[in-house]
Amino acid sequence: MWNDGRLCHGGDYNPEQWSAATWREDVELMRRARVTLVTVGVFAWSRLEPAPGRYDFGWLDEVLDLLHDGGVRVALATPTASPPPWFSLAHPDALPVTAEGVRLHHGSRDTYCAAAPAYRAAARGIAATLAARYAHHPAVALWRVHNEYGTSCHCPHTEAAFRRWLIDRYGDLDALNAAWATSFWSQHYTDWAYVSTPRATQYLGNPGQLLDFRRFWSDTLLAAYVEQRDLLRTANPALPVTTNYVLGDWVPVDHARWAAEVDLVAVDHYPSAVDGGAEEQTALAADLARGWARHGRRQADPATRPPADGPATWLLMESAASQIHTTGRSHTKEPGRMARHSLSHVARGSRGAMFFQWRAPAGGAERFHCALVPHTGPDSRVFRESVHLGAALDRLAEVTAGEVVAEIALARDAASDWALRHPGMPSDQLDGPAELAAAHRALWRAGYGCDVVVPGDPLDRYRLLVLPALYLAGDDTVDWVRGYVEAGGHLLVSYLSGIADPYARVHLGGYPGAYRDLLGLRVEEFHPLAADEQVLLSGGGTGRIWSETVRLRGAEPVCGYVGGVLDGLPAVTRHRVGAGTAWYLSTRPDDGTYRRLVTEAARTAGVQPVCPDAPPGVEAVRRAHPGASWLFLLNHTDRPQRVRAAGVDLLTGVPTAGEVALPAGGVAVIREESR
Amino acid sequence: MWNDGRLCHGGDYNPEQWSAATWREDVELMRRARVTLVTVGVFAWSRLEPAPGRYDFGWLDEVLDLLHDGGVRVALATPTASPPPWFSLAHPDALPVTAEGVRLHHGSRDTYCAAAPAYRAAARGIAATLAARYAHHPAVALWRVHNEYGTSCHCPHTEAAFRRWLIDRYGDLDALNAAWATSFWSQHYTDWAYVSTPRATQYLGNPGQLLDFRRFWSDTLLAAYVEQRDLLRTANPALPVTTNYVLGDWVPVDHARWAAEVDLVAVDHYPSAVDGGAEEQTALAADLARGWARHGRRQADPATRPPADGPATWLLMESAASQIHTTGRSHTKEPGRMARHSLSHVARGSRGAMFFQWRAPAGGAERFHCALVPHTGPDSRVFRESVHLGAALDRLAEVTAGEVVAEIALARDAASDWALRHPGMPSDQLDGPAELAAAHRALWRAGYGCDVVVPGDPLDRYRLLVLPALYLAGDDTVDWVRGYVEAGGHLLVSYLSGIADPYARVHLGGYPGAYRDLLGLRVEEFHPLAADEQVLLSGGGTGRIWSETVRLRGAEPVCGYVGGVLDGLPAVTRHRVGAGTAWYLSTRPDDGTYRRLVTEAARTAGVQPVCPDAPPGVEAVRRAHPGASWLFLLNHTDRPQRVRAAGVDLLTGVPTAGEVALPAGGVAVIREESR
Amino acid sequence: MWNDGRLCHGGDYNPEQWSAATWREDVELMRRARVTLVTVGVFAWSRLEPAPGRYDFGWLDEVLDLLHDGGVRVALATPTASPPPWFSLAHPDALPVTAEGVRLHHGSRDTYCAAAPAYRAAARGIAATLAARYAHHPAVALWRVHNEYGTSCHCPHTEAAFRRWLIDRYGDLDALNAAWATSFWSQHYTDWAYVSTPRATQYLGNPGQLLDFRRFWSDTLLAAYVEQRDLLRTANPALPVTTNYVLGDWVPVDHARWAAEVDLVAVDHYPSAVDGGAEEQTALAADLARGWARHGRRQADPATRPPADGPATWLLMESAASQIHTTGRSHTKEPGRMARHSLSHVARGSRGAMFFQWRAPAGGAERFHCALVPHTGPDSRVFRESVHLGAALDRLAEVTAGEVVAEIALARDAASDWALRHPGMPSDQLDGPAELAAAHRALWRAGYGCDVVVPGDPLDRYRLLVLPALYLAGDDTVDWVRGYVEAGGHLLVSYLSGIADPYARVHLGGYPGAYRDLLGLRVEEFHPLAADEQVLLSGGGTGRIWSETVRLRGAEPVCGYVGGVLDGLPAVTRHRVGAGTAWYLSTRPDDGTYRRLVTEAARTAGVQPVCPDAPPGVEAVRRAHPGASWLFLLNHTDRPQRVRAAGVDLLTGVPTAGEVALPAGGVAVIREESR
Predict the structure, then answer these.
(1) Nearest-by-Cβ selection for B190 from C51, C361, C382
(2) Phi-psi label, residue C488: left if phi above 0, alpha if psi -120 to 50, beta otherwise
(3) Do A314 and A350 meet the contact criterion of CB atoms below 8 Å apart?
(4) How does pLDDT run across B240-264, given as a tens digit for each residue?
(5) Closest chain B residue to the Cα of A209, Cα to Cα
(6) What does the record give as EC number (chains A, B, C) (predicted)?
(7) Which entry of A628, B362, C432, C579 is 20 to 30 Å from B204 by CA?
(8) According to CATH, what is the number of the domain A618-672?
């Protein structure tokens, strides 16, 4: 087993930046902080292979031995996210090129094109060399391939590869012409040679081409990963392999599809909001990761990964100890916030809490990125908090037996988010991840647990399915939703769901073409709102971003628009379908209204909050397995709070007297008495 | 005659995007909406010539026949605004290049350089082929060349062509050196080979070079148009030829100069303001178009276009049925607004109201652009409104006999607007179109009709001439203005008029060099205002953007500056010159003050509003010919309004009882009793 | 002597833009304005050498003779800041290239790469030709090399030169790898050939590389200057040589290091703030210039420049007569402001007040830049004010004997400012020049004079040393500060000082690594503030931009943070060290608080304001030499002010009766009675 049964604590460790004396101090400090796992070698290529074919493994041998002696396991990284200077100089054709034709140069990280043959060969080379040397080193518990796959490129290698990928996908040009709607603007192709990547052009680009270019990159990066994984797996089939996901609108990666190819879903998470938003982002990221892990387990090839029992496993591979990177500056996390973020991940299924990074460097581009051992050294609040966190994680190992309990599913699809960002949409405020976050926030504030699912995933455990701006819908997705509702499921659909097919072509005849029958309505017109505009809703709420002319075809209004051109027309509707209800939101409600609406939908569906009496600002997450359950209570407020709960707080070992007293910013993890 | 005597209704029609079954439905729906004219083939090159020299005309034959059978006339387009993929691949040197040297690629539209010989040859080729096949097709009533000429480029072909154009213009380098003031910053040329396009450079560019580059592109695009026109005209001299103008600061086209070369001025108009601004922009665009049509008729070569009687003819070739494209989103036009915009154009002389586009496509870059038949289909508000508009247009054919009545002229000159946008101006808020719009808005709100004229146009019908930031003035323009005033005309000049010569070199000795004697003053210093700054004016108004030290030399103050460094000095002046008055505005007055000032100037000049008792928000436009007149009344408010008028409302056939009752947002067109 | 003992008045004169008749008018107008010195030929290369090797000196001969006859001295410029068109066409490889690889083109100015051999050869060529012809012309008093050195480039010539410079600097790659911390992100170099300029890259660049690239450009531009200087000096060792400094964040020039190579520090100064900020910027720029002049005199090679006695000499070489160029527009200077700005420079040591430019051109990129003779001509406020200024300067010649009196020193270091602008800093609001300006403003408003010093300069005349965000500190700087304090000096250090070493690597173990012992504290954590965030300070002030967790190690708190995570912790501290005090500011105080703090620090150090009873808004500067002193009083308010002072006002010749009455905006220069 790649972990030792405990929850992991640790982070990226870069011994190549430090002296051997510091290595020894590091192992001692890791022991104090109960570090169980460190990632080594992520950006060490230029130190491992300082010149082509010349290797220097001495320092790594020594470090791995030291760590092993100190009881610290190693996730050994392949260093392919940052080729050495010599590689870039020898292979300028493998440097990435922007859509404008600018060739990017060495001097940062990720300066390669993953479609360039020379890069792929070099990456396989160093991976195989590491595999040969370390696949059976006792310290190595896990392989971490690359770092945060997420680059794209427009070089000639890419163009050729994109064309091959399209030929695979479409077979003939008629299919591509239809999918990309090339009759518009005279873009009809009559030879594959005419097809290129979506380079900088005069005006709006082709949506089908833009969407397929993202899909192509997801597949191409995945292929780069799989090549390395297979080499590593061959060297020692017992060692699991993963790569750490990076989240962000710019990343051309469909993480759900990748989940079947990793032995462990590993996620880097850096919230960007300072206030409560950081906690909401943390909860959503963890729910996404758990969803990918489950999805991957179902999709994985049983030949290489035997079906597993128990909760789906994933790992928070990187997070920031003491900073929130937000626009324009790093916000310093308040005391206790690191632990609260970490335990929010653990509550949602992470096998631990890992950080970038162990020790803050004196130089380099990220010299001011935070670390468990900051510039100030171990005599610091931050290191002391990491020691406390290590101790806390140590006490919580048993929770890994529990699965997170949720009866609500949020559907998410990477391609929908990509398509909503295309030029030529009716509004430039359309933002799939923000729609997902708004729905998730509404549930989170209302106290409901939820899973994030991928269209096609089994839905039998859920009573309510939410589609937040799930823009694309092919027949399979429509069938999946319809089947769920017809089986008695409750459904909540937000505007912009089901508008287009998988090629981003609009379903004609009234929006949302994919779901209008199910919803009992037809949307006749869109009324996108200005950035600073609000519409009033009957019952007191407001809507932003979007509004619509909704014509009822069986649905009943829940609330309506007040004033303006839509005055008196329905804004939110519900439609009884068999035993279930299909709700529709034609605008983005304000947070309070959204919360009331999901509460009403959940109540109708028979779903309860995790901890109905938890006060506002106290997050409750329950993990359970037959015969046991654990309740995580996270107090995000700056005041003490009390919550009714019966059991033992694992962090203190103290039984509750029916009520848990949470200090300001504090956390409790209750092993619950027979619920 | 290209139209059938009725006002046109219709739009761009793209049968290449639809099945043959849809074609038949389209013709039926066109019949319901009384569509008279559709533009076909605009972006069909890749479907008409799928490979070099291989043509596919079958579908177009069938569509033209269907339309002809359905009684719909066709404006047949040459598809040269979007070359097929095969063209770009075969001629990469014909792809456009930005000032920074970025080669733009296929994937949108307009991805060609109009100075590239290969592009010009291919464009002539497809135009000649279409002419040979369709010049005598009974459905074809009009040729529409290309679409919205407006591209520029910095490729080597462009550089060579620019140099040839400069040699034609200047003859010798001394003249160019003087015009461009190359003594500044060591830019003196001693060989034509040194002269290039204004590529990206280290710091501020040369104003003369920038201005001539715009002029070069206007002439180059015009030559591309004329080539095609001549081919089409040769194939059938009876068919008129035009191209649709696109408006916008970025367009390097002097539309007034082009007007002599088109058989019909055709304008695409898309307002960008949401509130009343859309109506003001519509009125201005229509006045501009009418001015171009008149100007062109006077300038046209009598050998190819015989002098015409009656009102100058122009056509609104494209507009948006149900959207206003504004920053960040599409605003949905309120019920009735499509008709009101359309009839505002017709009131000002358009031969009808055409739209982009007939039917909204499922895919392509503009999949969410609105259409007469929207995604929802014909069972929709938008299609119903287009049916009503078709009926209304049908009833209004007689108004085409009337000419718009105006006694006020606004002068506009494309090159002045270009020069005001150059780097190195005293303020980055200088904006010629915005100055024109501000003056036009003042007149529009005060209820006056006006024409837009080009310097040099006859002025005998006008009592008041307005120069809004007419920055450039050569001797001919100065003589034109002076002659008008000396003949008793009244003149209103705004700041930034007459500052520079046609090469953008400042007239020395006191601003505005071209007009200071006529205005009876000398401006000693400019005082540009900060973006959020206002100056107070005596009498209660305010000024923005600009202020000046005005020294009187015969003029009298109308109002003065209050406070600040200009306290007590004149802000607005008037100067009696013979029988006329020359007014000067040294700042941009607020809208109310501007309206009062133009009202005072108009009253002094003896000009009356179109409909003196029309309430605010009700626009009145009169068309007249000897013996008849028609009064358009457009209620832009959201309340019913009443206006005194005697005659018959053509839209309802009901005689007024001395007063017209306009519903909120409604329109009436009164055939007036003997005025 | 390059001047005639008087204070200089004049500016850039471009006779190549004007006719010979205008030259004669110019000399007459210069006589009226008592112009003593004009710079000729700055951008005249294309007129002096219209084709390679073909020269036209006739016009320059005539102009120099005319000026000499008119009693006007000439600073003759080498025109190398703007090569002619023929040069760029012949040497496209000498055009500059951006980090993105965009080759910039001719058409502005400064379109060369100063590392390109062809450019350097051509520059030497025209300089040598000018030297041969004019080095002994009686009109020529001074050589002005080039104009505002400040370009950079990424072309292959640059890359090669950068590599050579790095080899010189580091000797071996181990040193470079250590300095640049290349262990981070796999950037370890094993061959010099791999090292390039910091081109556009995928993500954050390397801070060491970015910093050295700035240093390289400073040295490269200096070498270009020195080449020309040596040629000119050889032609006539008696003529002094200089180049005019341009100030700005973007300029890769360490002006302090250059000061040893110029015979006269010459500065162009254009404030960018409109309100009082223009006066504060003027005072700071002049203090900077004086500091460079002193620093340069100490560093200069005694072989070429013998040690001088008396006040350090510098010259305001360019300023704007009537405009303040601020964001988006030119603000027109109010009456009297030109003189006040000029005399603020003279008060601080400038040998006069020079302007860009003498006469405003009709054309060219800077056609609206102001001038002593504006577009309007000499019958103008601006020319009249320049006549008055000429007369005033004439009366003030005696003040050049006095040295500015200051007991406070502000330390500034160009590289620190560069490093604070690197990507990856904890906040994007970190701005070295703004920190310097904030500290200087606090002193200026409190009425204290100050000098700006370069780390290493002698400090024996100062009682208080201020380090405003002096980010970098090597051992020598630390020793310099420590030695000063140990000798009894008082010290005030602001946040971000002493954080990193000269390679921008963080000093570990607690911030600020360089000074924590001296300050008696250890900063454990940074808390950068959001752009709109403030922290409250005990005592009523506020802090912006930054805050810190300060742990006292001997220092005592002066004021503390109120509220938030730092509530109750120290914000400002002081530490007694021997006879001195070391103050620390962990945030940027608001202006009032900053002023109170520097006043307290100055008082503790025993420093008095220049003129303790001067009212707010009246600036006082004193120049003195043994036995005499002159007090400049500048009334920046719009009301009359009175100041106690005894002596004779040199501008009026009137003795004060113990009190000077300053009109609104007025200036007095008092030759003081025995102080």
Answers:
(1) C51
(2) left
(3) yes
(4) 999 999 999 999 999 999 999 999 9
(5) B107
(6) 3.2.1.23
(7) C432
(8) 2.60.40.1180
Contact (Cβ atoms closer than 8 angstroms) between residue C492 and residue C601: yes
For B58-85, what is each residue's pLDDT tens digit?
A: 999 999 999 999 999 999 999 999 999 9
* DSSP-assigned states of every residue in A573-631: EEEEETTEEEEEESSEE-HHHHHHHHHHHHHHHTPPPSSTTPPTTEEEEEEEETTEEEE
Q: Any idea which fold A408-605 has?
A: Rossmann fold (3.40.50)
Cα C447 to Cα A263: distance, rounded to the nearest angstrom:
69
Cα–Cα distance measured from residue C5 to residue B99, given in angstroms and rounded to the nearest whole number? 50
Classified by CATH at the fold level, domain B8-153+216-401 comes out as TIM Barrel (3.20.20)
Q: Which residue type, as a one-letter code, is found at position C413?
A: D
Annotation: CATH topology of A8-151+210-398: TIM Barrel (3.20.20)
Distance in angstroms (rounded) separating the CA atoms of residues C476 and C472: 11
Q: State residue A444 phi and psi, 5-degree precision.
A: -60, -45
Distance from C-alpha of B183 to C-alpha of B193, rounded to nearest angstrom: 18
What is the rounded distance in angstroms from the CA atom of residue C171 to the CA atom of residue A570? 76
Are the C-beta atoms of residues C291 and C241 closer than 8 Å to each other?
no
pLDDT digits (tens, 9 = 90+) for A543-562: 999 999 999 999 999 999 99
Pairing label, strands C350-355, B570-577 = unpaired
Chain C interface includes B185 (CB < 8 A): yes
Instruction: Output the pLDDT for position A314.
Output: 97
pLDDT at B307: 65
Provide the whole-model pTM.
0.97
Backbone angles phi, psi at B45, to 5 degrees: -55, -50
CATH 3.20.20.80 fits C8-150+212-401, yes or no: yes
ipTM of the complex, rounded to two decimals:
0.96
Helix (H, G, I), strand (E, B) or coil at C30: helix
The answer to whether B18 faces chain C, any CB pair under 8 Å, is no
Tell me the per-residue pLDDT of A25-70, one tens digit each, with 9 for 90 and over.
999 999 999 999 999 999 999 999 999 999 999 999 999 999 999 9
pLDDT digits 0-9 by tens, C232-277:
999 999 999 999 999 999 999 999 999 999 999 999 999 999 988 9
Strand, helix or coil for residue C462: coil
Q: Is B322 at the interface with chain A, CB within 8 A?
A: yes
* pLDDT score recorded for residue B675: 55
A516 contact B CB<8A: no
Q: Chain A interface, mutation test: which of C185, C499, C569, most A Cβ atoms within 10 Å?
A: C185
User: Which chain A residues have a beta carbon less than 8 Å from that of C472?
Assistant: none
The domain spans of chain A are 8-151+210-398, 408-605, 618-672
Is the CB of residue A433 less than 8 Å from the CB of residue A249? yes
Mean of pLDDT over chain A: 97
C-alpha C475 chain-centroid distance: 26
H/E stretch holding C440: helix C432-446
Task: Give the rounded distance of the alpha carbon of C477 from its chain centre.
Answer: 21
pLDDT at position C193 is: 95
To 10 degrees, what angle do helices B20-32 and B58-69 make? Answer: 30
For residues A483 and A159, is the Cβ–Cβ distance under 8 A? no
Q: Which residues contact A589 (CB under 8 A, 6 or more apart)?
A: A537, A541, A542, A543, A572, A597
